[in-house]
Design goal:
This protein has 124 residues and is an alpha+beta fold. The protein is 23% helix and 30% strand. It is built from three helices and eight strands, in the order ββαββαββββα.
């Protein structure tokens, strides 16, 4: 069996890209460069661009992790998959993986991510 391992430029460790853990995804998102979305001040949030990640494969694996392990939330008539980590929620716009250009981040509602018990996969 061949396992694809790529060195992560954010924290200089080896990551098995097809079996990323919650800890690895959290570290990557916390290390990513986020910008304030100034065109949407009524919905304060930040975003990180694929272009600022030095590895499209790592970016796509983080996006896929968000989609696989997040929960659906409705916003203005649309449904998004949001992943709650470290007091923030992360989501994408839901397009095809290879066309996804950004990951959004907003502050989670007070206590929101702490009231929901961690799913089994998150306890690794």
């Amino acid at each position: 069996m061949i396992v694809l391992v790529q060195t992560c430029i954010f924290h200089h460790c080896d990551i098995d890209l097809h079996n990323m853990t919650l800890v690895e995804v959290t570290e990557l998102l916390l290390a990513a460069e986020f910008q304030f979305a100034k065109t949407m001040p009524e919905t304060p949030h930040h975003y990180t661009l694929r272009a600022t990640w030095e590895g499209g494969i790592v970016f796509e694996e983080v996006v896929q992790f968000i989609r696989d392990h997040g929960r659906e939330e409705a916003y203005l008539g649309e449904t998004y998959i949001c992943l709650y980590l470290e007091g923030h929620k992360y989501w994408t716009m839901g397009g095809p993986l290879d066309q996804t250009r950004l990951i959004n981040r907003a502050e989670a509602a007070a206590g929101c991510d702490r009231k929901t018990p961690l799913p089994t996969w998150a306890k690794r």
